[in-house]
Amino acid sequence: MTDNTPVYCFTIPSVNDGTLLDCRIYHPVSLQEPQSAQQHTRKAALIAHPYAPLGGSMDDAVVTTVVDQLLDLDFVVGTFNFRGAANSHGSTSWSGKAERDDYISVAGHLLFYMNQIHTPRIKDTTSAQSPTENDSNIPSEHIILILGGYSYGSLIVTHLPPTSEILTMFRETQASTWTSDILKRAKELALQTNTLLSNQADTRGRLPGSPLRKKHKRQSSSQHSISLPHVLTHYLLISPLLPPLASFLSLSTSNLMFWRHADHIAHNLVRHPTLVIFGTKDAFTSSHKMDVWCKKMNALSLQNAGIEGQSCFKWKKVEGAGHFWREHGVEAQLTDSLRGWVHEAVKQ
């Protein structure tokens, strides 16, 4: 398990059928530090775990390694257990559709949680405006988001709808629905975080952020008053699964069509910064198949970028690494690849 302690452990219902999902949110140390307006960039990541019937959960060693790295890179990180995993309710589906909706549920929660967090700012002593008149606590214009997964978790990520569709799903929610319950929980946790950060800022002699807390209270009477964030989405796939194993997870023709449906895969992964990390000794998906798939996705990304554009699809093949990343020295290559990609591709 990670040495980092989650700030929140909680449950939310899945938008699929209300199944309760066990979730965690981790905060980076930097979240408590005062920031200038130029530094104020909100970064969040969600990492999904391997196949639950084979023991997969958010406590998986690879998942927690990635969590630690992203926290060190100043991301707020969310993890969760799919239905049927550990303390989450329900059971694993054969189609994967329910798990996709589980992921969407947690992603929506994380995005709206981030959209309502107001980190402390460095007081501008050169400004003639009072704290209530300036915009020192107004959220940044965008959220940097990494949607990631390891093994089966990465398979679910490749079948997610575009982030804009996820946001629309929550915007159009009605009262007393699972989506409204998710928004309510996001607001409650964000209020707790804002209070904590404000109190810490007070003790350090910095801006307490009271104007935003007042605004938050005015919004609490209506779920629909929550504004939609502008999101810059990135994708992270670690040891992804490809057919025939991915298809084996489906036992019916209709389910098989779900796994083979490639519209969202091409749309998301070739239009947004994407990193794929895999090992040459992966027993579940051959290195050759991964090479072929990555080159195909890279070509599609180049085609989408146009004549003068560059591909946003990147991949790293780690020699000697198996599916579980237990071989000597391979974990360091995984984390180095992740950190290098974040510094290069994740725009501030």
Automatic annotation (TrEMBL):
Stretches the record annotates as Disordered: 200-225
Source taxon at top rank: Eukaryota
UniProt-recorded name of the protein: AB hydrolase-1 domain-containing protein
Organism of this sequence: Aureobasidium melanogenum (strain CBS 110374)
